[in-house]
Amino acid sequence: MSTEGDLLHVITSDVISPQRRMVGRILVWGAAALVAVVVLLQLLQISGRIDIGFTNWRPALYAYCVWVAAFLAGQVIIRGEMGKRRLFVLPAVLFVASLTLFPLLFGLVIAFSDWNLASPDGRRFNGTANLVKMWNDPFYWNALGNMVRYSLAIVVEYAVAFGLALLLAANIRARKFFRVAFLMPLMLSPVAVSWMVGKSILEPRFGPIGRLIRDLGFPSPAFFTDPVIARLMIMMMDAWTYIPFMMIMLLAGLQAIPREVQEAAHVDGASGWRGFWEVTFPLMLPVSVTAILIRLIFKLKLADIVITVTSGGPGGATDTVTSFIYREYRDRSNVGYGTMLAMVYLVLIVIVMTVMMKVSERWTRPQT
Amino acid sequence: MKVEHYNAIVRAGLTRRRLLQSAAAAGGVAAMGGLPGAAAAQDADEAALRAQILQIPGVGMGSPTDADWRKVGELTLGSTKATVEEGEFAGVELSFMGLNNQNLHNFLFRGFLAPWEEYTGAKINWIDLAQADFNARLQQSIATGTVDFDMLEMGAPFEGDTAGRGLLDEMPDWVAEILDLDDLVGYLKPPVGTWDGKTYRVSIDGDCHTLSYRKDYFTDPTISAATGYSEVPDTYEAMDDWTVKMKGQTDPLTGLPAYGFLDPLKYQWGGFGFYFLADRVAPYAKVPGNAAWLFEPDTMKPMVNNPAWVQAIDDVFNLIKADAYPPDQINADANSTAFAQFLAGTGGALMWWGDVGAMARTSDTSVVGDVTGFGINPGATKLYDWTKAEWVEPEGGKNEAPYMAYLGWGIYVTSRVSGDEKKRKAAWSAAAHLGGKDLALWMSAYPSGFQPYRNSQFDYDEWAAAGYDRDYIADYLGSNLDSYNHPNAAVEPRIPGIFQYFSIFEDEMAKGVAGQYASAQETADAIAAAWEEITDQIGRESQIALYKASLGL
User: Fold this and answer.
1) Beta strands in B46-142 (DSSP E)
2) Residue B230 and residue B162 share a domain
3) Closest chain A C-alpha to B353 CA, distance in angstroms
4) Is the pLDDT reported for residue B301 higher than 80?
5) B445 phi/psi in degrees, rounded to 5
6) For chain B: N or C, fewer Cβ within 10 A?
7) Are residues B373 and B480 in the same domain?
């Protein structure tokens, strides 16, 4: 046993012979070679050059599992005690990597393919054709444009949520009741909201709002005929569902602000508005930015309400990227193109979120 | 029979007296067994059997249960016992993929096939799917080469995806004999259910669109005087004229504004919205004696932008311009037009499946029960003959073309069993049991999710003997029968990816309806371009071959 090195964290410090290291390496690389051979055989089988009964990719999966086991064992054989320490995290790392990297790689392969499930020719690599198609697809650009509009509505949602949070943070009657009541829309499924509001309350003939508008003298109330009004209705339904989410985050932020700060501002002569604008609001910026960013992520996934209420209509006025991809993928079995649209949208979301986080980081940095 | 139909009929008021009448009729029929002659005796036995199964559990005695399904399955095992030895399929396991809609479909099949399993010794493993998942599951299984089912409940439109790719097993002659295929209604006879001259389908259901209309809109003196119509229009030209004239009238039932024909202007409905424009197109486009009306068979060139289709699209656009539809109609899908509008008293006529007819009588939300009439798809006074590329005057001054929307469900056997004769016989025996003539009668009389599909199911006396109201049944089924057997029925093509064409049609049509295209022609051209793209993606040559095969050319 060695008396040198990291004696605090290493119980035993093995002296590992070169032969043992060699055995470990052979094990790991041998298993890797097995994977390579099985994958190669699989590819030959697919291309029709050989027929060894590999009707699916399970042999490759089994070979990969063998490699994982050999790799883990190899850590112990090659590194001894240090290898055992790695075993605490390596299985989890490999598991997560397997469930993210492989699907991502397969997704990319599909995204660069012409794959219509109804085609007898199956999947065919088509290079950047899907990207070109996307570039010239007015449905996709229309949906992206709508996403920008929907996302801008977050500003209004934030203002409403902040107002409600201030209300609930104040000493009002039945505060607990209102906190629960205001949270209820968030507990509802957006599909339920779609049916309750979009399909029932806003039903132009028998819905209560339609009746009210008729009673007010407008003969033909219509909520989803005009593109702008239809888009506003979708925004309102989505806002109604998710404003409580922003509200509850902002409320938690408000309650975390020490009362002394507000009292000090009051003593210094700050009015209610100045107290809010120059003390409360700046202190709430980090929470606000977090709430807005999370809300933006939710917003970019908007699909259920649109699919249920308008199917993207009238004429694509309410379409979202996700609802468009849903139609392309599910109704039209256009797997290659649908996957490419989803991949591009993922990249766009990552870019937008990264930019937003960088900008918000600058905003919320304490000014010195 | 669809569940809602059954509930409607039951709520319509089956009395005990009716039930006793039916029992008496059954006894009478059974007494006929005493007639001399083997054939007569056989007929009498069959009649007695049909009367007997119609009493399980008895009309008005509540919805059938699994025990009832098993009883019916047991009683209709005759053809199985005649063709299969007891225990012959011991050790055979079959995988059956079907639906679980409304806890029917596969649930019924389980009950019907339980006695079959006991008798033959085979075992069936079930794959239950929601209807919304069906297309994706089927397409993915085919595309990834992972077909894991020996038997399949499937709509005929998917025959192109399956039979067209050699995934189905051809029906043996002995099964065809059991099924009495001549008894099928006209449109379900070949080429439907066949591919390249081979038969694959065991029909268990029928589907078509029929016209439902408000009779009171043609008898109400005020409305009739204003519109000048005292009979329901029998052409789309007249229907649209009537629809425009209905504007400003008041519904006598609800006191709200009355409207004429309802089109689901929110066409996007998972591909099914296509059917509702196709209803309008068929009489303009479907040339008698020529099955093709969607694509030109030799090139797969879409006809969707030819003058017939443009006329139908333009008809809709003109009604929009005339403000003849209810408010927000642009957000009304087909489901809304039937259940939220027509049954609730909005709209004077619409095209739909049989559900509207049955539910109109007694549905809790229906206010049009006593004022609804039925008919076949309206015709057109002009016909575009695509082979001549010109409008022609139809024979008799009117062209009719009822649209067989979706074609109904069937049972298919996949080619997974083709190499194992014992398993193959077992699969076909099970399919034949489900497609049997007597079982068909029971399925149309009780909640099953299926509509009549055999001529023998339209014997109204048999229904009356079982306890149903004869007038009601004649009214409800008559329009279906007339459509099914119409000589110029427009039959849905069964090519791969057919619902992809329908889906993109909906997207482009929605843009046209929203005024994003300058004209009906421009809308139709956009649809045609999208259809061309789909055809190229799937493979034009194979589509041409499969389209011709689906048309029986």
Assistant:
1) 93-99, 123-129
2) no
3) 22
4) yes
5) -90, -20
6) C
7) no
- ipTM, two decimals: 0.77
Asked if the Cβ–Cβ distance from B143 to A313 is below 8 Å, we say no
Give the closest of B143, B161, B497 to A122, CB-based.
B143
Confidence at residue B17, expressed as pLDDT on a 0 to 100 scale: 38
Residue ranges of chain A whose CB lies within 8 Å of a chain B CB: 55-56, 114-123, 139, 203-206, 220-225, 227, 230, 309-317, 327, 330-335
- Domain of B337, in residue numbers: 210-404+489-551
Question: Using CA atoms, how far apart are residues B269 and B506, in angstroms rounded to an integer?
Answer: 8
Contacts of A310 in chain B (CB under 8 A): 266, 331
Q: Report chain A's mean pLDDT, rounded to a whole number.
A: 90
Fold of A133-364: MetI-like fold (1.10.3720)
> What pLDDT is stored for residue A162 in this prediction?
96
Residues B237 and B100 both lie in one domain: no
Q: Which of B432, B449, B484 is the last residue of a domain?
A: B484
B394 and B439 both lie in a single domain: no
**Residue B130 DSSP symbol:** -
Whether B359 has a pLDDT exceeding 90, the answer reads no
Same-domain status, B432 and B547? no
Shortest Cα–Cα distance, B524 to chain A (Å): 15
Whether residues B331 and A327 touch (CB distance < 8 A) is answered with no
Amino acid occupying residue A320: T
CATH number of the domain enclosing B128: 3.40.190.10
CB pairs A-B closer than 8 Å? 126
Total count of domains within chain B: 2
Measured between CA atoms, how close is A324 to chain B, in angstroms?
Answer: 10
When scoring B133, B535, B537, B543 by the number of chain A Cβ atoms within 10 A, the one with the most, hence best to mutate, is B537
Q: Do A120 and B326 touch (CB under 8 A)?
A: no
Hey, are the CB atoms on B503 and A331 less than 8 Å from each other? yes
Give how far Cα A328 sits from Cα of A124, B271, B534, Å: 18, 12, 12
> What is the average pLDDT across B374-387?
96
Question: Which residue carries 């699909």 as its tokens?
Answer: A303
Mean pLDDT of B473-486: 86
Contact B7, B361 (CB under 8 A): no
Query: What digits encode the pLDDT tens for the residues B172-183?
Result: 999 999 999 999
CA atoms of B66 and B114, how far apart (whole Å): 10
Percent share of chain B, pLDDT over 70: 91
The number of helix segments (H) and strand segments (E) in chain B equals: 23, 16
